[in-house]
Amino acid sequence: MDSEDDMHDANDSADDDFYSGGEAGLAASDDGDGDYDFADHDSDDSPELLSHRQQQNYCILSEAGIKQRQEDDINRVSTVLSISKSEACVLLRSYNWSVSKVHDEWFVDEERVRKVVGFPEKRIEMPNDRELACGICFENCPHASMSAAACGHPFCSVCWRGYISTAINDGPGCLMLRCPDPSCAAAVGQDMINSLANEEDKEKYGRYLRRSYIEDNRKTKWCPAPGCEYAVEFVVGSGSYDVNCNCSYGFCWNCTEEAHRPVDCATVSKWILKNSAESENMNWILANSKPCPKCKRPIEKNQGCMHITCTPPCKFEFCWLCLGSWSEHGERTGGFYACNRYEAARQEGAYDESERRREMAKNSLERYTHYYERWAANQSSRQKALGDLQSLQNDKLEKLSDIQSQPESQLKFIIEAWLQIVECRRVLKWTYAYGYYLPEHEHAKRQFFEYLQGEAESGLERLHQCAEKELQIYLEAESPSKDFNDFRTKLAGLTSVTRNYFENLVRALETGLNDVGPSTSQSTGIKNTTSKSLGGKSKSGKNRASAAGSKSGSSSRGVDDSNIWTCDQCTYVNPRSAKACQACDHQHR
Protein backbone atom coordinates (compact mmCIF):
# COMPACT_ATOMS: atom_id res chain seq x y z
CA MET A 1 0.00 0.00 0.00
CA ASP A 2 1.12 3.55 -0.52
CA SER A 3 2.75 5.68 2.10
CA GLU A 4 0.69 7.62 4.61
CA ASP A 5 1.47 10.84 2.77
CA ASP A 6 -0.02 9.33 -0.35
CA MET A 7 -3.13 8.47 1.57
CA HIS A 8 -3.44 12.03 2.83
CA ASP A 9 -3.01 13.19 -0.74
CA ALA A 10 -5.90 10.95 -1.79
CA ASN A 11 -8.08 12.25 1.03
CA ASP A 12 -7.15 15.85 0.35
CA SER A 13 -8.65 15.45 -3.09
CA ALA A 14 -12.11 14.82 -1.64
CA ASP A 15 -13.15 18.34 -2.65
CA ASP A 16 -12.21 17.42 -6.21
CA ASP A 17 -15.67 15.81 -6.36
CA PHE A 18 -14.62 12.46 -7.71
CA TYR A 19 -17.94 11.19 -6.42
CA SER A 20 -19.88 14.39 -6.99
CA GLY A 21 -23.47 14.11 -8.03
CA GLY A 22 -23.84 17.82 -8.71
CA GLU A 23 -22.69 20.21 -11.41
CA ALA A 24 -19.07 19.89 -10.31
CA GLY A 25 -18.97 16.17 -11.06
CA LEU A 26 -19.03 14.24 -14.29
CA ALA A 27 -22.80 14.42 -14.34
CA ALA A 28 -24.99 13.94 -17.38
CA SER A 29 -25.51 17.06 -19.48
CA ASP A 30 -28.75 18.99 -19.48
CA ASP A 31 -29.04 18.96 -23.25
CA GLY A 32 -29.22 15.16 -23.43
CA ASP A 33 -26.07 14.69 -25.50
CA GLY A 34 -25.38 11.47 -23.65
CA ASP A 35 -22.12 12.51 -22.01
CA TYR A 36 -20.58 10.14 -19.52
CA ASP A 37 -22.41 10.03 -16.22
CA PHE A 38 -19.74 8.99 -13.76
CA ALA A 39 -21.71 10.31 -10.82
CA ASP A 40 -23.50 7.92 -8.56
CA HIS A 41 -26.80 9.76 -8.20
CA ASP A 42 -28.39 6.92 -6.29
CA SER A 43 -26.78 5.51 -3.20
CA ASP A 44 -28.25 2.07 -3.87
CA ASP A 45 -27.37 0.27 -7.07
CA SER A 46 -30.18 0.48 -9.60
CA PRO A 47 -31.96 -2.77 -10.55
CA GLU A 48 -30.65 -2.38 -14.10
CA LEU A 49 -27.05 -2.10 -12.90
CA LEU A 50 -27.43 -5.04 -10.55
CA SER A 51 -28.93 -7.08 -13.36
CA HIS A 52 -26.03 -6.12 -15.59
CA ARG A 53 -23.53 -7.24 -12.94
CA GLN A 54 -25.31 -10.48 -12.15
CA GLN A 55 -25.81 -11.47 -15.76
CA GLN A 56 -23.29 -14.22 -16.31
CA ASN A 57 -22.74 -15.33 -19.87
CA TYR A 58 -20.60 -18.33 -19.00
CA CYS A 59 -20.68 -21.48 -16.90
CA ILE A 60 -17.75 -23.00 -14.98
CA LEU A 61 -17.46 -26.77 -15.48
CA SER A 62 -15.69 -29.18 -13.15
CA GLU A 63 -14.45 -32.57 -14.37
CA ALA A 64 -17.72 -34.16 -13.22
CA GLY A 65 -19.69 -31.42 -14.98
CA ILE A 66 -17.77 -31.94 -18.21
CA LYS A 67 -18.42 -35.67 -18.09
CA GLN A 68 -22.13 -35.15 -17.40
CA ARG A 69 -22.59 -32.69 -20.27
CA GLN A 70 -20.69 -34.96 -22.61
CA GLU A 71 -22.89 -37.92 -21.69
CA ASP A 72 -26.02 -35.78 -22.10
CA ASP A 73 -24.98 -34.79 -25.62
CA ILE A 74 -24.16 -38.39 -26.53
CA ASN A 75 -27.52 -39.59 -25.20
CA ARG A 76 -29.36 -36.85 -27.09
CA VAL A 77 -27.75 -37.75 -30.42
CA SER A 78 -28.16 -41.48 -29.78
CA THR A 79 -31.87 -41.05 -29.08
CA VAL A 80 -32.67 -38.73 -31.99
CA LEU A 81 -30.69 -40.66 -34.63
CA SER A 82 -31.47 -44.13 -33.25
CA ILE A 83 -27.82 -45.19 -33.13
CA SER A 84 -25.69 -46.66 -30.35
CA LYS A 85 -24.00 -44.41 -27.79
CA SER A 86 -20.60 -45.48 -29.09
CA GLU A 87 -21.56 -44.40 -32.62
CA ALA A 88 -23.04 -41.16 -31.31
CA CYS A 89 -19.73 -40.43 -29.55
CA VAL A 90 -17.74 -40.99 -32.77
CA LEU A 91 -20.20 -38.86 -34.70
CA LEU A 92 -20.01 -35.95 -32.23
CA ARG A 93 -16.22 -36.17 -32.13
CA SER A 94 -16.12 -35.90 -35.94
CA TYR A 95 -18.26 -32.75 -35.87
CA ASN A 96 -16.51 -31.03 -32.95
CA TRP A 97 -19.19 -31.96 -30.43
CA SER A 98 -21.83 -29.79 -32.07
CA VAL A 99 -25.18 -31.55 -31.58
CA SER A 100 -26.99 -29.22 -33.99
CA LYS A 101 -24.41 -29.72 -36.72
CA VAL A 102 -24.60 -33.52 -36.34
CA HIS A 103 -28.38 -33.39 -36.71
CA ASP A 104 -28.23 -31.09 -39.71
CA GLU A 105 -25.61 -33.14 -41.58
CA TRP A 106 -27.20 -36.49 -40.76
CA PHE A 107 -30.68 -35.59 -41.96
CA VAL A 108 -29.38 -33.90 -45.11
CA ASP A 109 -27.22 -36.82 -46.28
CA GLU A 110 -26.98 -39.77 -43.92
CA GLU A 111 -25.07 -41.92 -46.44
CA ARG A 112 -22.31 -39.33 -46.87
CA VAL A 113 -21.98 -38.84 -43.10
CA ARG A 114 -21.70 -42.58 -42.54
CA LYS A 115 -18.94 -42.78 -45.12
CA VAL A 116 -17.03 -39.85 -43.60
CA VAL A 117 -17.08 -41.10 -40.01
CA GLY A 118 -16.66 -44.82 -40.81
CA PHE A 119 -20.11 -46.33 -40.19
CA PRO A 120 -21.00 -49.20 -42.57
CA GLU A 121 -24.58 -49.25 -43.83
CA LYS A 122 -25.10 -52.53 -41.99
CA ARG A 123 -23.04 -54.10 -39.29
CA ILE A 124 -21.17 -57.12 -40.64
CA GLU A 125 -20.81 -59.99 -38.24
CA MET A 126 -17.72 -62.19 -38.05
CA PRO A 127 -17.96 -65.63 -39.68
CA ASN A 128 -19.52 -68.12 -37.26
CA ASP A 129 -16.63 -70.57 -37.54
CA ARG A 130 -15.17 -72.35 -34.57
CA GLU A 131 -11.73 -70.87 -35.26
CA LEU A 132 -10.78 -67.74 -37.17
CA ALA A 133 -7.48 -66.45 -38.53
CA CYS A 134 -6.31 -63.17 -36.95
CA GLY A 135 -5.55 -60.55 -39.59
CA ILE A 136 -2.49 -59.29 -37.65
CA CYS A 137 -0.68 -62.32 -36.16
CA PHE A 138 -2.21 -64.77 -38.72
CA GLU A 139 -2.78 -67.41 -36.04
CA ASN A 140 -5.97 -69.39 -35.76
CA CYS A 141 -7.79 -68.44 -32.60
CA PRO A 142 -11.07 -69.57 -31.02
CA HIS A 143 -14.12 -67.55 -32.08
CA ALA A 144 -14.68 -66.39 -28.48
CA SER A 145 -11.27 -64.65 -28.37
CA MET A 146 -11.83 -62.76 -31.64
CA SER A 147 -13.36 -59.29 -31.98
CA ALA A 148 -14.27 -57.02 -34.88
CA ALA A 149 -15.52 -53.52 -35.52
CA ALA A 150 -18.72 -52.91 -37.50
CA CYS A 151 -16.86 -53.97 -40.65
CA GLY A 152 -16.53 -57.59 -39.44
CA HIS A 153 -12.74 -57.93 -39.87
CA PRO A 154 -11.66 -60.38 -37.13
CA PHE A 155 -8.57 -59.88 -34.94
CA CYS A 156 -7.56 -61.67 -31.76
CA SER A 157 -7.88 -59.99 -28.39
CA VAL A 158 -4.10 -59.82 -27.88
CA CYS A 159 -3.55 -58.00 -31.18
CA TRP A 160 -6.51 -55.70 -30.55
CA ARG A 161 -5.16 -54.83 -27.12
CA GLY A 162 -1.70 -54.06 -28.52
CA TYR A 163 -3.17 -52.04 -31.40
CA ILE A 164 -5.39 -49.99 -29.08
CA SER A 165 -2.63 -49.48 -26.49
CA THR A 166 -0.18 -48.22 -29.11
CA ALA A 167 -2.76 -45.79 -30.50
CA ILE A 168 -3.66 -44.45 -27.05
CA ASN A 169 0.00 -43.98 -26.09
CA ASP A 170 0.54 -42.06 -29.34
CA GLY A 171 -1.89 -39.36 -28.17
CA PRO A 172 -5.38 -37.97 -28.84
CA GLY A 173 -5.37 -39.38 -32.37
CA CYS A 174 -6.72 -42.58 -30.80
CA LEU A 175 -10.13 -40.90 -30.72
CA MET A 176 -10.30 -41.35 -34.50
CA LEU A 177 -9.15 -44.97 -34.41
CA ARG A 178 -10.01 -47.12 -37.45
CA CYS A 179 -10.06 -50.82 -38.14
CA PRO A 180 -6.53 -52.36 -38.26
CA ASP A 181 -7.21 -53.68 -41.76
CA PRO A 182 -5.34 -51.29 -44.12
CA SER A 183 -8.16 -51.31 -46.65
CA CYS A 184 -10.91 -50.59 -44.09
CA ALA A 185 -12.01 -47.24 -42.66
CA ALA A 186 -14.53 -48.51 -40.12
CA ALA A 187 -14.50 -46.57 -36.85
CA VAL A 188 -13.44 -48.18 -33.58
CA GLY A 189 -15.75 -46.86 -30.86
CA GLN A 190 -15.48 -46.46 -27.13
CA ASP A 191 -17.39 -49.71 -26.55
CA MET A 192 -14.49 -51.69 -28.04
CA ILE A 193 -11.96 -49.65 -26.07
CA ASN A 194 -13.80 -50.44 -22.84
CA SER A 195 -14.05 -54.15 -23.60
CA LEU A 196 -10.50 -54.72 -24.92
CA ALA A 197 -8.11 -52.18 -23.37
CA ASN A 198 -6.50 -52.41 -19.93
CA GLU A 199 -7.54 -50.07 -17.09
CA GLU A 200 -4.68 -47.61 -17.62
CA ASP A 201 -5.44 -47.25 -21.32
CA LYS A 202 -9.17 -46.88 -20.68
CA GLU A 203 -8.44 -44.07 -18.23
CA LYS A 204 -6.18 -42.33 -20.74
CA TYR A 205 -8.79 -42.68 -23.47
CA GLY A 206 -11.43 -41.18 -21.17
CA ARG A 207 -9.17 -38.19 -20.45
CA TYR A 208 -8.54 -37.64 -24.16
CA LEU A 209 -12.27 -37.79 -24.77
CA ARG A 210 -13.01 -35.17 -22.10
CA ARG A 211 -10.18 -32.96 -23.39
CA SER A 212 -11.60 -33.27 -26.89
CA TYR A 213 -15.03 -32.20 -25.62
CA ILE A 214 -13.51 -28.95 -24.34
CA GLU A 215 -10.76 -28.24 -26.87
CA ASP A 216 -12.68 -29.09 -30.05
CA ASN A 217 -15.89 -27.37 -28.99
CA ARG A 218 -15.97 -23.70 -29.95
CA LYS A 219 -18.17 -22.91 -26.94
CA THR A 220 -15.77 -24.24 -24.32
CA LYS A 221 -12.19 -23.59 -23.22
CA TRP A 222 -9.95 -24.60 -20.35
CA CYS A 223 -9.13 -22.00 -17.74
CA PRO A 224 -5.57 -20.87 -18.61
CA ALA A 225 -4.45 -20.58 -14.96
CA PRO A 226 -1.57 -22.95 -14.14
CA GLY A 227 -2.82 -26.14 -12.53
CA CYS A 228 -6.51 -25.27 -12.92
CA GLU A 229 -8.74 -28.14 -14.08
CA TYR A 230 -11.93 -26.14 -14.60
CA ALA A 231 -13.36 -25.47 -18.05
CA VAL A 232 -15.63 -22.64 -19.13
CA GLU A 233 -18.67 -22.78 -21.39
CA PHE A 234 -19.26 -19.37 -22.92
CA VAL A 235 -22.19 -17.84 -24.81
CA VAL A 236 -20.40 -16.16 -27.71
CA GLY A 237 -21.68 -12.73 -28.71
CA SER A 238 -23.31 -12.06 -25.36
CA GLY A 239 -21.28 -9.05 -24.22
CA SER A 240 -18.12 -8.89 -22.14
CA TYR A 241 -15.42 -11.52 -22.66
CA ASP A 242 -14.34 -11.37 -19.01
CA VAL A 243 -14.51 -14.71 -17.18
CA ASN A 244 -13.87 -15.36 -13.49
CA CYS A 245 -13.02 -19.00 -12.89
CA ASN A 246 -13.74 -20.82 -9.64
CA CYS A 247 -9.97 -20.91 -9.07
CA SER A 248 -10.17 -17.08 -8.66
CA TYR A 249 -8.31 -16.41 -11.92
CA GLY A 250 -9.89 -13.88 -14.27
CA PHE A 251 -9.22 -14.12 -17.98
CA CYS A 252 -10.47 -12.97 -21.35
CA TRP A 253 -12.43 -15.62 -23.24
CA ASN A 254 -11.39 -14.23 -26.61
CA CYS A 255 -7.58 -14.20 -26.23
CA THR A 256 -7.17 -16.24 -22.96
CA GLU A 257 -4.88 -13.55 -21.53
CA GLU A 258 -5.75 -12.23 -18.08
CA ALA A 259 -8.91 -10.13 -17.94
CA HIS A 260 -8.07 -6.76 -19.46
CA ARG A 261 -11.13 -4.56 -19.77
CA PRO A 262 -11.24 -1.77 -20.90
CA VAL A 263 -8.40 -2.59 -23.34
CA ASP A 264 -9.17 -4.69 -26.42
CA CYS A 265 -7.36 -7.94 -27.20
CA ALA A 266 -5.28 -6.47 -30.04
CA THR A 267 -3.89 -3.75 -27.76
CA VAL A 268 -3.11 -6.31 -25.05
CA SER A 269 -1.27 -8.46 -27.58
CA LYS A 270 0.81 -5.47 -28.72
CA TRP A 271 1.54 -4.42 -25.13
CA ILE A 272 2.64 -7.89 -24.00
CA LEU A 273 4.81 -8.26 -27.11
CA LYS A 274 6.37 -4.87 -26.46
CA ASN A 275 7.13 -5.78 -22.85
CA SER A 276 8.90 -8.95 -23.93
CA ALA A 277 10.53 -7.74 -27.16
CA GLU A 278 14.10 -6.53 -27.61
CA SER A 279 13.00 -3.23 -29.17
CA GLU A 280 13.05 -1.33 -25.87
CA ASN A 281 16.49 -2.76 -25.06
CA MET A 282 17.74 -1.38 -28.38
CA ASN A 283 16.07 1.95 -27.65
CA TRP A 284 17.84 2.08 -24.30
CA ILE A 285 21.20 1.27 -25.90
CA LEU A 286 20.64 3.90 -28.58
CA ALA A 287 19.55 6.53 -26.04
CA ASN A 288 22.18 5.90 -23.36
CA SER A 289 25.28 4.62 -25.13
CA LYS A 290 27.61 5.27 -28.05
CA PRO A 291 29.48 2.71 -30.16
CA CYS A 292 33.24 2.35 -29.81
CA PRO A 293 34.70 3.90 -33.01
CA LYS A 294 36.93 0.85 -33.46
CA CYS A 295 35.02 -2.32 -32.42
CA LYS A 296 31.48 -0.80 -32.47
CA ARG A 297 30.50 -2.27 -29.09
CA PRO A 298 28.03 0.01 -27.23
CA ILE A 299 29.50 1.90 -24.28
CA GLU A 300 27.54 3.64 -21.52
CA LYS A 301 29.09 6.67 -19.84
CA ASN A 302 27.48 7.47 -16.48
CA GLN A 303 30.15 9.66 -14.88
CA GLY A 304 33.70 11.00 -15.23
CA CYS A 305 35.56 12.85 -17.97
CA MET A 306 35.36 12.53 -21.76
CA HIS A 307 38.37 10.19 -21.99
CA ILE A 308 36.95 6.72 -22.70
CA THR A 309 38.89 3.45 -22.92
CA CYS A 310 37.10 0.50 -24.49
CA THR A 311 37.25 -2.84 -22.66
CA PRO A 312 39.75 -5.55 -23.66
CA PRO A 313 40.67 -6.81 -26.15
CA CYS A 314 39.89 -3.56 -28.00
CA LYS A 315 41.31 -1.03 -25.47
CA PHE A 316 40.80 1.84 -27.94
CA GLU A 317 40.97 5.29 -26.30
CA PHE A 318 38.68 7.95 -27.70
CA CYS A 319 36.76 11.15 -26.92
CA TRP A 320 33.17 10.57 -25.80
CA LEU A 321 31.88 13.69 -27.53
CA CYS A 322 33.42 13.56 -31.00
CA LEU A 323 34.40 9.84 -30.95
CA GLY A 324 37.87 10.79 -32.27
CA SER A 325 41.08 9.14 -31.10
CA TRP A 326 42.22 10.45 -27.71
CA SER A 327 45.78 10.75 -29.00
CA GLU A 328 44.58 13.75 -31.00
CA HIS A 329 43.12 15.43 -27.93
CA GLY A 330 44.64 17.46 -25.13
CA GLU A 331 44.60 20.91 -23.60
CA ARG A 332 44.32 22.52 -27.04
CA THR A 333 41.04 20.68 -27.74
CA GLY A 334 39.42 21.51 -24.39
CA GLY A 335 41.03 19.12 -21.92
CA PHE A 336 39.30 16.20 -20.22
CA TYR A 337 35.82 17.70 -19.81
CA ALA A 338 35.19 19.45 -23.13
CA CYS A 339 35.90 19.03 -26.84
CA ASN A 340 36.33 22.02 -29.14
CA ARG A 341 36.24 19.78 -32.20
CA TYR A 342 32.84 18.44 -31.22
CA GLU A 343 31.40 21.93 -30.61
CA ALA A 344 32.67 23.20 -33.97
CA ALA A 345 31.37 20.17 -35.85
CA ARG A 346 28.00 20.37 -34.09
CA GLN A 347 27.56 24.00 -35.11
CA GLU A 348 28.15 22.90 -38.69
CA GLY A 349 25.44 20.24 -38.34
CA ALA A 350 27.75 17.24 -38.49
CA TYR A 351 26.04 15.49 -35.55
CA ASP A 352 22.44 16.55 -36.23
CA GLU A 353 21.24 13.17 -37.52
CA SER A 354 22.86 11.07 -34.78
CA GLU A 355 21.69 13.48 -32.06
CA ARG A 356 18.20 13.43 -33.51
CA ARG A 357 18.14 9.63 -33.45
CA ARG A 358 19.41 9.58 -29.88
CA GLU A 359 16.82 12.14 -28.81
CA MET A 360 13.98 10.23 -30.48
CA ALA A 361 15.10 6.99 -28.86
CA LYS A 362 15.35 8.71 -25.48
CA ASN A 363 11.87 10.23 -25.76
CA SER A 364 10.38 6.94 -26.88
CA LEU A 365 12.07 5.11 -24.02
CA GLU A 366 10.98 7.66 -21.43
CA ARG A 367 7.38 7.50 -22.64
CA TYR A 368 7.31 3.71 -22.58
CA THR A 369 9.00 3.61 -19.17
CA HIS A 370 6.44 6.05 -17.76
CA TYR A 371 3.49 3.84 -18.72
CA TYR A 372 5.18 0.52 -18.03
CA GLU A 373 6.27 1.47 -14.50
CA ARG A 374 2.74 2.50 -13.57
CA TRP A 375 1.28 -0.60 -15.24
CA ALA A 376 3.68 -2.80 -13.27
CA ALA A 377 3.11 -0.83 -10.04
CA ASN A 378 -0.64 -1.41 -10.18
CA GLN A 379 -0.03 -5.07 -10.91
CA SER A 380 2.18 -5.25 -7.83
CA SER A 381 -0.44 -3.44 -5.75
CA ARG A 382 -3.10 -5.83 -7.02
CA GLN A 383 -1.00 -8.84 -5.98
CA LYS A 384 -0.51 -7.30 -2.52
CA ALA A 385 -4.24 -6.64 -2.25
CA LEU A 386 -4.91 -10.28 -3.14
CA GLY A 387 -2.53 -11.32 -0.38
CA ASP A 388 -4.23 -8.99 2.09
CA LEU A 389 -7.63 -10.38 1.07
CA GLN A 390 -6.41 -13.93 1.62
CA SER A 391 -5.04 -13.02 5.03
CA LEU A 392 -8.32 -11.34 5.91
CA GLN A 393 -10.35 -14.38 4.93
CA ASN A 394 -8.05 -16.83 6.70
CA ASP A 395 -7.83 -15.27 10.18
CA LYS A 396 -8.43 -11.53 10.46
CA LEU A 397 -12.15 -11.71 9.78
CA GLU A 398 -12.62 -14.23 12.56
CA LYS A 399 -10.54 -12.06 14.90
CA LEU A 400 -12.58 -8.97 14.01
CA SER A 401 -15.79 -10.92 14.58
CA ASP A 402 -14.65 -11.82 18.11
CA ILE A 403 -13.49 -8.29 18.97
CA GLN A 404 -16.58 -6.50 17.65
CA SER A 405 -19.01 -9.24 18.78
CA GLN A 406 -20.55 -9.54 15.35
CA PRO A 407 -21.07 -12.68 13.23
CA GLU A 408 -18.82 -13.07 10.20
CA SER A 409 -21.88 -12.99 7.96
CA GLN A 410 -22.28 -9.31 8.88
CA LEU A 411 -18.66 -8.55 7.96
CA LYS A 412 -18.98 -9.49 4.30
CA PHE A 413 -18.89 -5.81 3.38
CA ILE A 414 -15.15 -5.86 4.15
CA ILE A 415 -14.54 -8.78 1.77
CA GLU A 416 -16.61 -7.00 -0.89
CA ALA A 417 -14.47 -3.88 -0.45
CA TRP A 418 -11.24 -5.83 -0.92
CA LEU A 419 -12.61 -7.68 -3.93
CA GLN A 420 -13.49 -4.31 -5.43
CA ILE A 421 -9.98 -3.01 -4.71
CA VAL A 422 -8.47 -6.01 -6.51
CA GLU A 423 -10.74 -5.49 -9.52
CA CYS A 424 -10.10 -1.74 -9.64
CA ARG A 425 -6.34 -2.28 -9.50
CA ARG A 426 -6.68 -4.53 -12.53
CA VAL A 427 -8.73 -1.96 -14.45
CA LEU A 428 -6.38 0.85 -13.48
CA LYS A 429 -3.39 -1.23 -14.56
CA TRP A 430 -4.77 -1.68 -18.07
CA THR A 431 -5.70 1.99 -18.43
CA TYR A 432 -1.96 2.65 -18.71
CA ALA A 433 -1.70 0.31 -21.70
CA TYR A 434 -4.76 2.12 -23.09
CA GLY A 435 -3.07 5.48 -22.56
CA TYR A 436 0.18 4.35 -24.20
CA TYR A 437 -1.57 3.50 -27.45
CA LEU A 438 -3.91 6.51 -27.40
CA PRO A 439 -2.88 8.56 -30.48
CA GLU A 440 -0.68 11.54 -29.57
CA HIS A 441 -2.51 13.88 -31.95
CA GLU A 442 -5.88 13.35 -30.24
CA HIS A 443 -5.14 15.93 -27.57
CA ALA A 444 -8.75 16.27 -26.42
CA LYS A 445 -9.22 12.55 -25.84
CA ARG A 446 -5.86 12.30 -24.13
CA GLN A 447 -6.68 15.18 -21.78
CA PHE A 448 -10.11 13.76 -20.96
CA PHE A 449 -8.67 10.26 -20.49
CA GLU A 450 -5.98 11.52 -18.12
CA TYR A 451 -8.61 13.39 -16.15
CA LEU A 452 -10.75 10.25 -15.76
CA GLN A 453 -7.69 8.16 -14.91
CA GLY A 454 -6.61 10.65 -12.23
CA GLU A 455 -10.09 10.63 -10.70
CA ALA A 456 -10.10 6.83 -10.69
CA GLU A 457 -6.75 6.72 -8.87
CA SER A 458 -7.94 9.25 -6.31
CA GLY A 459 -11.12 7.36 -5.53
CA LEU A 460 -9.41 3.99 -5.38
CA GLU A 461 -6.79 5.30 -2.96
CA ARG A 462 -9.58 6.57 -0.73
CA LEU A 463 -11.27 3.16 -0.69
CA HIS A 464 -7.96 1.35 -0.19
CA GLN A 465 -7.04 3.54 2.76
CA CYS A 466 -10.40 2.97 4.42
CA ALA A 467 -10.26 -0.81 3.90
CA GLU A 468 -6.68 -1.11 5.10
CA LYS A 469 -5.70 1.54 7.62
CA GLU A 470 -9.06 2.36 9.15
CA LEU A 471 -9.91 -1.34 9.44
CA GLN A 472 -6.66 -1.86 11.36
CA ILE A 473 -7.97 0.38 14.16
CA TYR A 474 -10.85 -2.02 14.80
CA LEU A 475 -8.60 -5.08 14.51
CA GLU A 476 -6.37 -3.68 17.25
CA ALA A 477 -9.25 -2.70 19.54
CA GLU A 478 -9.68 -4.58 22.81
CA SER A 479 -13.46 -4.29 22.99
CA PRO A 480 -16.37 -3.57 20.63
CA SER A 481 -16.13 -0.08 19.12
CA LYS A 482 -19.13 2.21 19.30
CA ASP A 483 -18.41 3.68 15.88
CA PHE A 484 -17.96 0.34 14.06
CA ASN A 485 -21.35 0.68 12.38
CA ASP A 486 -20.29 4.10 11.10
CA PHE A 487 -17.20 2.44 9.64
CA ARG A 488 -19.43 -0.18 8.02
CA THR A 489 -21.56 2.53 6.43
CA LYS A 490 -18.54 4.46 5.23
CA LEU A 491 -16.74 1.46 3.70
CA ALA A 492 -19.88 0.08 2.05
CA GLY A 493 -20.63 3.51 0.60
CA LEU A 494 -17.11 3.95 -0.76
CA THR A 495 -17.22 0.44 -2.25
CA SER A 496 -20.50 1.10 -4.03
CA VAL A 497 -19.47 4.49 -5.38
CA THR A 498 -16.03 3.31 -6.51
CA ARG A 499 -17.59 0.31 -8.23
CA ASN A 500 -20.02 2.51 -10.12
CA TYR A 501 -17.32 4.94 -11.17
CA PHE A 502 -15.02 2.21 -12.49
CA GLU A 503 -17.86 0.49 -14.33
CA ASN A 504 -18.72 3.75 -16.05
CA LEU A 505 -15.03 4.41 -16.74
CA VAL A 506 -14.66 1.01 -18.39
CA ARG A 507 -17.72 1.57 -20.57
CA ALA A 508 -16.46 5.01 -21.59
CA LEU A 509 -13.03 3.72 -22.60
CA GLU A 510 -14.51 0.73 -24.43
CA THR A 511 -16.55 3.11 -26.59
CA GLY A 512 -13.39 5.09 -27.36
CA LEU A 513 -14.45 8.24 -25.47
CA ASN A 514 -16.82 9.02 -28.34
CA ASP A 515 -18.22 12.15 -26.69
CA VAL A 516 -14.87 13.90 -27.03
CA GLY A 517 -14.74 16.07 -30.15
CA PRO A 518 -11.72 16.96 -32.32
CA SER A 519 -9.22 19.26 -30.66
CA THR A 520 -8.44 22.77 -31.75
CA SER A 521 -5.53 24.98 -30.80
CA GLN A 522 -5.18 25.31 -27.01
CA SER A 523 -8.64 23.76 -26.62
CA THR A 524 -9.64 20.63 -24.83
CA GLY A 525 -12.00 19.74 -27.64
CA ILE A 526 -14.44 18.21 -25.23
CA LYS A 527 -18.09 18.91 -25.86
CA ASN A 528 -19.37 21.97 -24.10
CA THR A 529 -21.59 19.96 -21.81
CA THR A 530 -18.73 17.70 -20.79
CA SER A 531 -16.43 20.67 -20.29
CA LYS A 532 -18.97 22.21 -17.96
CA SER A 533 -19.19 19.02 -15.96
CA LEU A 534 -15.42 18.92 -15.60
CA GLY A 535 -15.56 22.34 -14.04
CA GLY A 536 -12.46 23.87 -15.64
CA LYS A 537 -8.91 22.57 -15.55
CA SER A 538 -8.33 18.83 -15.68
CA LYS A 539 -6.16 16.71 -13.46
CA SER A 540 -3.70 14.64 -15.43
CA GLY A 541 -3.72 10.97 -14.60
CA LYS A 542 -0.47 10.69 -16.52
CA ASN A 543 1.37 12.82 -14.00
CA ARG A 544 -0.24 11.37 -10.91
CA ALA A 545 1.59 8.98 -8.65
CA SER A 546 1.12 5.33 -9.39
CA ALA A 547 -0.46 2.84 -7.02
CA ALA A 548 2.92 1.88 -5.66
CA GLY A 549 4.31 5.13 -4.79
CA SER A 550 5.27 8.70 -5.27
CA LYS A 551 3.00 11.69 -4.94
CA SER A 552 2.42 14.38 -7.49
CA GLY A 553 0.46 17.54 -7.20
CA SER A 554 -3.00 17.89 -8.65
CA SER A 555 -4.34 21.03 -10.19
CA SER A 556 -7.52 22.71 -9.03
CA ARG A 557 -10.51 22.41 -11.27
CA GLY A 558 -12.21 25.56 -10.12
CA VAL A 559 -15.04 23.84 -8.25
CA ASP A 560 -17.54 26.13 -6.58
CA ASP A 561 -17.61 24.85 -2.98
CA SER A 562 -20.92 26.60 -2.37
CA ASN A 563 -22.66 24.05 -4.60
CA ILE A 564 -21.44 20.93 -2.79
CA TRP A 565 -21.01 19.45 0.67
CA THR A 566 -18.85 16.54 1.87
CA CYS A 567 -20.36 13.79 3.99
CA ASP A 568 -18.78 13.48 7.45
CA GLN A 569 -19.31 9.73 7.45
CA CYS A 570 -17.97 8.53 4.08
CA THR A 571 -16.37 11.64 2.47
CA TYR A 572 -18.80 11.40 -0.47
CA VAL A 573 -19.18 14.76 -2.21
CA ASN A 574 -22.85 15.64 -2.64
CA PRO A 575 -24.69 18.45 -4.45
CA ARG A 576 -25.95 21.24 -2.20
CA SER A 577 -29.56 20.28 -2.98
CA ALA A 578 -29.16 16.81 -1.43
CA LYS A 579 -30.59 16.54 2.09
CA ALA A 580 -28.85 13.23 2.80
CA CYS A 581 -25.61 11.67 1.57
CA GLN A 582 -26.15 9.85 -1.71
CA ALA A 583 -23.67 7.14 -0.69
CA CYS A 584 -24.57 6.34 2.92
CA ASP A 585 -27.88 8.21 3.61
CA HIS A 586 -26.24 10.20 6.42
CA GLN A 587 -28.32 13.30 7.08
CA HIS A 588 -26.73 16.64 6.19
CA ARG A 589 -26.68 19.09 9.07
Automatic annotation (TrEMBL):
Region (Disordered): 1-49, 513-561
Pfam family membership, one: IBR_1
InterPro entries according to UniProt: Ariadne, ARIH1-like_UBL, E3_UB_ligase_RBR, IBR_dom, TRIAD_supradom, Znf_RanBP2, Znf_RanBP2_sf, Znf_RING
GO molecular function: ubiquitin conjugating enzyme binding; ubiquitin protein ligase activity; zinc ion binding
Record's keyword terms, sorted: Metal-binding, Repeat, Transferase, Ubl conjugation pathway, Zinc, Zinc-finger
Recorded metabolic or biological pathway in which this protein acts: Protein modification; protein ubiquitination
Residues covered by the RING-type domain: 130-343, 134-178
Sequence ranges of Low complexity compositional bias: 531-557
SMART domains: IBR (SM00647), ZnF_RBZ (SM00547)
GO biological process per UniProt: protein ubiquitination; ubiquitin-dependent protein catabolic process
Biased segments, Polar residues type: 517-530
Biased composition (Acidic residues): 1-18, 30-47
Cofactor(s) named in the record: Zn(2+)
Catalytic activity: [E2 ubiquitin-conjugating enzyme]-S-ubiquitinyl-L-cysteine + [acceptor protein]-L-lysine = [E2 ubiquitin-conjugating enzyme]-L-cysteine + [acceptor protein]-N(6)-ubiquitinyl-L-lysine
GO cellular component: cytoplasm; ubiquitin ligase complex
CDD domains per record: BRcat_RBR_ANKIB1, Rcat_RBR_ARI7-like, RING-HC_ARI6-like
EC number: 2.3.2.31
Keyword Lipoprotein: no
Functional summary from the UniProt entry: Might act as an E3 ubiquitin-protein ligase, or as part of E3 complex, which accepts ubiquitin from specific E2 ubiquitin-conjugating enzymes and then transfers it to substrates.
Family: Belongs to the RBR family. Ariadne subfamily.
Name of the protein: RBR-type E3 ubiquitin transferase
Gene that produces this protein: LOC123045872
